Amino acid sequence: MSGQGRGLRLAGVAKSYGSVTALRQTDLTVEAGEFLTLLGPSGSGKTTLLNLVAGYVSPDEGQIFVDERDVTSVPARGRNIGMVFQNYALFPHFDVAGNIAYGLKVRGVSKAEIAERVSAVLALVQLDGYGGRAIQQLSGGQQQRVALARALVIEPDILLMDEPLGALDRQLRKIVQLELRRLHEAHRRTTIYVTHDQEEALILSDRVAVMHDARIIQIGTAAELYADPVDAFVAGFIGESNLLPARVIALSGGIAAVEVPGLRRELCARAAPGVAVGRSARLLIRPEHLQTDAAQGITGVVDQVVYLGELVAARVALETGGALWIRRVGDKVLVHGAKIEVGWAIEHLRVVAEASGGE
Known about the structure:
Radius of gyration: 24 Å
Shape: globular
Strand order of the largest sheet: 6-7-8-3-9-10
Low-confidence stretches: none
Strand content: 25-35%
CATH superfamily of the largest domain: P-loop containing nucleotide triphosphate hydrolases
CATH class of the largest domain: Alpha Beta
Number of helices: 8
């Protein structure tokens, strides 16, 4: 099977259904061979963006390019794009090979080439010998692989996947995630993947586009999104977060001075774009960056403890109101009912806006 695929570019693409905005004006570039995940809650615009790329719906404005070829008005069948749906959409009256071969038959490929390509893609998804099986005889994970094979066998320029693991149980989902990543690393086909599962996005992706309110909020690698979220929404959606209300009293050179209720002194920390004096903000502290051996003037009582193997996660109810989650390796002071003082290193703090842009 050939790899790489082609690059994709969206320029000012938008879509509405009556008074409902499904996707605000969007610019997006996906490099050839890249695995990009669209991550966000339901109604954030993920599937609309995917359907626009596939050609199932037409944009109200903007253009869509595949390797600089304008495909905005090209119907779905003329875009050479593979699609894997959440429900797989397999034909129950065809066997495995018949399902995989369907797209090739529609394209008029010869029987000999169909047999060769179906055999090759079955090996690729580790279903050798399954061509004659009925769909009803397969497990959920096997059906998912057949759906993937059907999309791959046409050698698409771009592969689109709309929550394809949603019907799998958690353990099987993890196994298939690793298989998808293995396949991508081996063949580097341009892929756009939709999910609301942050862990899945971080495992699979070269880059992640976080979506909310019908637009892309931030795009970056997993490490970039975790370390430098652009606002409180992204900070709360990627990884676990403590987000304390903060008042920005000064801002200079990308550093914000903030006052936080319950702290005895003001703090200075890196500021994300959108942070401004007089606007509401949040102080971001990741649970693993909190310490129990540094005095910062914030005390509380441990009121919940969760054991995660060698890690201990605890909720600390603050004397000033609110709570912080802390996660440490075998910290003996994190026991229910203990009164503790928590602190942090300043370099681990970040000030983020409540929200960035939007309407």
